[in-house]
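In the current project phase, we have settled on a layout for protein records. A sample record is reproduced below.
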Amino acid sequence: MKNNGSGKAAMLSNLDYSKIRKNIINEKYKILFDIAWYTGERWGALVQLRKNDIYQKDGTPKDYITFRARTRKASPDGTQQTRQIPVNETLWNLLNSYSPKDGYLFPSRNYPEQHITLRNADSILRKAVAKAGLAAKGISTHSTRVTFITKLHEQGTDIYTIQQITGHKDLKALAGYINISPDRIKNAINLL
């Protein structure tokens, strides 16, 4: 569990997601949280999304979200790759109910030609987590990524498909995101 910024980010349950989302006041930041939940992308890339990364010219959501290479964390070899994630029906409907302006999807309040910072996004999340009564859980912006990857694994998605979705170059690094519950270990042993 994360403690004062150290340790592994906490997993989120569906109930945690709902409680946190309910406590995010601004609709555009609810969309930020939704995109994090349904794509597993790092928040540093999320805050840099532009309207045309998600929406067609007519304002309807695309069938995928494009995370441009220059907005994504570099792999150990220093390269950055564009990542496209299909949009599921739930996220598509959430995106369709939101009408962003051109430019950054999450513009700075004081400098609309710039995006909010990761620090701003982290602050928004932390305030919602506190209001939801979940502050002691160790939730951080990385919790959505850990949860996304673990949920894919728990639902039977093979590690190589998860690797394609997340863009991890190294399977060891990807494996570090997967939380295995004690019940899952017990059930595996009971198969013997």
Summary: The CA atoms of residues 4 and 108 lie 27 Å apart. The beta strands are 64-67, 83-86. The chain has one domain: 14-190. The mean pLDDT is 88.
